[in-house]
Structures are given as C-alpha cells and as structure tokens.
Amino acid sequence: MKKTITVTVAFLMMAVVNFSLGAVKPSPEEKPQPITTLIINVPVTVMLLDNDQAKPQIVGKSSLTQLVTLQQSGDTLVIGSTKDRNLVNAGVIYIPAASLASIRINSDATVRSLQTLQIPKLNVVINGSCYFQVSNIGEVNMVETEKYVFEQNREVRPLPANFVRSKKY
Q1: Other CB atoms within 10 Å distance of the CB of residue 75
Q2: Across the chain, what does the average pLDDT equal?
Q3: If we measure between CA atoms, which residue out of 125, 131, 140, 113 comes closest to residue 38?
Q4: CA–CA separation, 128 and 108 (whole Å)
C-alpha cells in the first residue's frame, strides 16, 4: 500500500513540475494601431469613441456584419461594403477616434460621437448627403466638395479651465 501511494505521489509531482516548466505565458495583447484617417464609403452609422485602446467594432443586424468591410492600411481605416445597400439603421460601427486627424465621408452616412472628443484639429471632407453630429474640444474644419454643400449648425460653449486635463493642448 505504501509503495502504491509513494509511486502515485511521485507521478503527481512529476506531472506538476513538467506542466509548470512547459507552460507558455500568454503574450500580451497587441496595442491597436491608432487611426488618423477615416474614410466612409457606405451609408452606415458610425459612432466615434474617445479611446485609443479600443478596436473598430461592428454591432448590429447580421446584414451589417456580413456586408460591411473594415480595411486598415497603416493609419487609414476604410469602411466599405460588399454590396450597395443603405445600412444606416442596421446597427452601429464603433471607431476609436482619439488619434483622428481627418474624416472623409463619401456616402449618406451618419457620423456621431458617443462622448465629447478631445481632438486638437479634425478635418472633415463632406462628399455625400450625410449627417455629421460630433462634439469635440478642439478645432473642426468642414470642407465641401463640388457636388455637395453643407449646412452647418455650430455651437461653441466655454468650458471651465479644469475640465480639460489633457496634454494634447
């Protein structure tokens, strides 16, 4: 009986030692590359987030997740579609916007911000019949193309000095 217990304990100890020595530590998750340019080529709803750690995410009906493509090349993200459909009401595409410098809207998209963004200078090119409703602490330059003019309704509100605690300014 003692031999059986001793052998069992020995095998158990060897298994624990081998398992712990052979264990591979999980690699830290890669930090997503910041997006500085956003190009929207399909009628969708895009929600901008003031977060560099987030990754672009599509949330909504299966038609949205199946048809919309997100192609990132360097610091440029292009939102496209495999078919020509209006997907504005099919769901939302969440995009990290803390590093954005320019947005080009080439469709009938709706672009909004979830919270107030803190982008020092944001250039927006309007090349479609779209809605652009963004709250930003910083400069927003709107540019229209030959075929599209825009109506701008801008409200500038003063903020208390202690509201912005970012080193971007």
Answers
A1: 14
A2: 81
A3: 125
A4: 5
Would you say 145 and 125 are in contact if contact means Cβ atoms under 8 Å apart?
Answer: yes
Can you tell me the distance from the alpha carbon of 72 to that of 67, in angstroms, rounded to the nearest whole number? 16
What is the domain extent for residue 135?
Answer: 37-144
| pLDDT band at residue 164 using 50, 70 and 90 as cut-offs | low
CB atoms within 10 A of CB 155: 5
Residues 10-30, mean pLDDT to the nearest whole number: 48
pLDDT at residue 142 above 70?
Answer: yes
Partner residues linked to 131 by β-bridges: 110
In a domain, 80, yes or no: yes
Residue labelled with tokens 């949205």: 64
Q: Is the pLDDT of residue 23 over 90?
A: no
Residue 124: CATH number of its domain: 2.160.20.120
**From start to end of the chain, where are the E strands?**
37-40, 45-49, 57-60, 68-73, 76-81, 91-96, 102-105, 110-113, 121-126, 131-133, 139-144
Q: Looking at this protein, which amino acid is placed at residue 47?
A: M
